[in-house]
Amino acid sequence: MASKARTLFLVSLLIMAAVAVGPMAAEAQLGIISGLLGLINVHGTVFCTANGNMGANGTATPVFPNAGVQLQCGGTIISTTTTNAAGIFSILLDPLRFILTTLLNDCSVRVTTPLSTCNATLPSVGGLLSSPLQFVGDILVGLLRVTQLVPTGFNLLPSNSNNN
Ligand SMILES: *[C@@H]1O[C@H](CO)[C@@H](O)[C@H](O)[C@H]1NC(C)=O
Ligand SMILES: *[C@@H]1O[C@H](CO)[C@@H](O)[C@H](O)[C@H]1NC(C)=O
């Protein structure tokens, strides 16, 4: 799957980066490599509904493809991406740069494309969706520990406000 391939690609990059760090005490290198054997994956699905969440029809609910998605922490945009044809987005973060509790307490996911883009009967203004994150577990991909964070749910915001 695309996200797995991307993850494996990132792992190779990380290992290459660790190897490229140059002459160093063996134990220091080990420390760096074990620190790098992890990633944080903020992912989820955006649905084409009035609140962006799954509707009564479960997985048959229409999704929101090609929607701009931002990860914001304390009002700062950390990363942006776009949902794929299945409405799925995924943002990979380096755990050496982001602390889990900070991500859970200060960060949210925003959909920047108006809902009217996927369904003309839905709002064309104030279409921003926001959601805090929750931890749903770790997945091992080879040696890599991938910490899974997902939105707890989306809300339709009345305006283009920029608070969390
Ligand atoms: C659920 O699916 C049925 C059958 O396709 C459809 O008639 C109904 O409108 C759907 N309900 C929602 C809330 O999407
Ligand atoms: C568009 O949204 C309206 C209102 O939520 C809904 O009734 C309709 O079924 C949606 N159309 C499609 C193609 O999903």
TrEMBL record:
Residues 1-20 form the signal peptide. It comes from the Eukaryota. Keywords: Signal. This is Phylloplanin.
